[in-house]
Write a structure and sequence with these properties.
This protein is mainly α. The chain is built from ten helices and four strands. The strands form two sheets. The chain has a two-stranded parallel sheet. A two-stranded antiparallel sheet has the order 2-3. Strand 2 and strand 3 form a beta hairpin. Helix 3 runs antiparallel to helix 4, helix 5 runs antiparallel to helix 7 and helix 8 packs antiparallel against helix 9. The two termini are 19 Å apart. The N terminus is likely disordered.
Length: 264
């Protein structure tokens, strides 16, 4: 799709300069290879970093926030930072297309699996006689297999749904109304993520009543979507800056949307 086509102009309306951006299809972007983008690797590194830290630090802790009229309301602590990975997922799909977002999702999945394996091995190693921090180490890094499985399944499914909805809506809207794509894809993607993770990880677990699981599930979904809405101006800024820097705006009109491949 050449510069000045309807698709290029439509994509540029959401915060990018028409004269600096060339819209391409998913197939054209894939043929170009990853070396043509200057900042793709940095966005991927940020995505994987936030994903890993969110899983290590915040996944298993339930915190509370005091809400007017409602009192103390429980929520998963990982909500504070994990949604940034969804914002970056939106940026990846919007700027670089579904195929490259798919590659990053697989990279993130592999990183989480390696982190889980490394944690399990290190925790299982017998501590030295004079080292007394084993219980604390187990409490922080000794994730039970059930939570690991739930986390990986929820992330994988939620991210692919998010990227698919984002890419399809971009084609449908001709690249206009970025806010509708980021919020719409998050509503669906985060819904899938929460519906998989919390029942699979905590249903019937000690300290987790059925009501608590349901409450945290819907609270997480609402808060994640709220975060996406609040971060919309930042998303516009990052997307516009990257499109100008990369001189590209990918439309997935001829993309193979199967998740079961990592090749661009």
């Amino acid at each position: 799709m050449a510069q000045g086509d309807k698709g290029a102009g439509g994509g540029a309306h959401d915060g990018a300069d028409d004269r600096a951006i060339v819209a391409t299809t998913g197939g054209e972007a894939g043929a170009a290879g990853g070396g043509g983008f200057r900042h793709f690797d940095l966005v991927m590194a940020a995505f994987v970093t936030i994903l890993l830290l969110s899983n290590v630090i915040g996944a298993g802790k339930v915190a509370t926030i005091r809400l007017p009229l409602l009192g103390d309301w429980p929520f998963g602590a990982g909500i504070l930072f994990f949604p940034i990975s969804y914002v970056l997922g939106d940026v990846l799909t919007e700027v670089y297309g579904y195929a490259r977002a798919r590659r990053v999702i697989w990279a993130g999945t592999a990183a989480v699996l390696f982190m889980a394996a490394m944690s399990a091995i290190v925790v299982a190693l017998p501590p030295a006689p004079g080292w007394t921090n084993q219980p604390a180490y187990e409490a922080v890094f000794g994730q039970v297999p059930r939570i690991v499985l739930a986390s990986v399944c929820a992330f994988w499914a939620g991210e692919f749904v998010n990227a698919y909805v984002m890419a399809r809506m971009k084609v449908m809207t001709g690249g206009r109304h970025l806010w509708s794509r980021t919020i719409g894809s998050t509503l669906v993607g985060q819904g899938v993520d929460s519906l998989i993770f919390y029942p699979l990880a905590f249903w019937g677990a000690a300290g987790w009543t059925d009501d608590l699981v349901v409450t945290v599930l819907f609270t997480q979904w609402a808060l994640k979507t709220g975060w996406e809405i609040l971060l919309t101006p930042l998303t516009y800024l990052v997307v516009g800056s990257l499109k100008r820097a990369e001189r590209a705006d990918v439309f997935d009109t001829d993309t193979d949307f199967t998740p079961f491949r990592a090749r661009v």
